[in-house]
Amino acid sequence: PSLLLPPPDDEVTGVRLDMAYDVLFYDKHWLQDTFGAHPMAVHAFGVDTPATFNSSDSDWATHPKLFDYVSVGMFAPWKRHEAITEKTGARLVVGYGWRSEVSSGIVSTLFSAGVAVWQQVLPEQMCGIYRASRKLLMAATELGGGERVILEARACGMPTEAIELRSDNSRLREFISSPIYSSAYYAAQFALGIRSVLPTSASVVPDTHGTATPQRQEAPGKPEPFRISV
User: Fold this and answer.
1) Which of 163, 159, 165, 106 is CA-nearest to residue 139?
2) CA-based nearest residue to 130, from 198, 55, 75, 194
3) What CA–CA distance (Å, rounded) separates 152 from 56?
4) What does pTM read for this prediction?
C-alpha cells in the first residue's frame, strides 16, 4: 500500500508531494514513519466523547447482552463483515451502503448466514449496541479503517479484551492501547496545526508521541481571536 512508503516527488517541481503542504494531519501514529520528514506533521483524531459515546448510562459488564458478536462499518469489501459468519451465537452487523451492487451482495451473504443487519443507526444509539454485545469483531483490512469504531466502543465502556481483531491487521492494535481521543482533542490538534502556519505562530515543540506540535506565540498587545468559518 502506498501509505507504507514515503510520498513520491512531484513530476514538475521534483519536491516530495507532502512538502507542498504547510501542515499535515494524520490519524494513526504509524504514519509518522511515512510523513516523518515533514516539518509540521500533527496527529489529529477523535470521537465524540463524552457527549455521544460514554459509559455513564450503564456498565458494560452488567448490561443485558443481546448479541455475541457485533461488526460495525460501511458495507464495503475492505470491512470484511463476512468474517462474522465464521462466529457462532447471535450476530449483528451495523452499517450503511457503499456501492449498491456490492453492498447488496454483502448484506445478502450475511442474511443467508443468519446474521442480523441494521442500517443507518444513529450515533447516539450505538452505545446501547456496544453494551448489548459480548464482542466487537473488527475484521477490516489494514487500509479498511475501523479505528473510530474501536474508540467508540471503548468510550462506551467495552473492555479491550472484548474487541477482536483479525491477525493480518496488526496496525489496528494501536487503538486497543491508545488513549480514547476525544472530539475536543481532535479539534484542538487541527487548531494547533493551522495556527502553526499563521504569521503570529513561531515555535514548535514535540508532543508526547514525538510529533511536531506548535506552541502559539502571542503578538504584542491584544491578540485577535482565532476563528474558522465553514
Assistant:
1) 165
2) 55
3) 14
4) 0.81
Task: Please work out, in degrees rounded to the nearest 5, the angle formed at the alpha carbon of residue 106 by the alpha carbons of 101 and 107.
Answer: 100
Residue 224 has a pLDDT of 43
What was the pLDDT predicted at 99? 85
pLDDT, tens digit, 9 for 90 and up, residues 87-142: 999 999 999 988 888 999 999 999 999 999 999 899 999 999 999 999 999 999 98
Q: Which residues contact 230 (CB under 8 A, 6 or more apart)?
A: none
Handedness of CA 86, 169, 76, 179 (dihedral sign): positive
Contact of 196 with 39, CB cutoff 8 Å:
no
Long-range residue pairs from 208-217, CB within 8 A, at least 24 positions apart, any chain: 209/29, 209/32, 209/43, 210/32, 211/29, 211/32, 211/41, 211/42, 211/43, 212/39, 212/40, 212/41, 212/42, 213/42, 214/40, 214/42, 216/192
Written as nine digits, the cell of 31 is 504514519
Residue 210, classified by CB atoms within 10 Å of its CB into exposed (0-12), middle (13-18) or buried (19+), is: exposed
Residue ranges in the chain whose pLDDT is less than 50: 1, 201-202, 204-206, 208-230
Q: How many CB atoms lie within 10 A of CB 188?
A: 13
Compute the residue count for the chain: 230
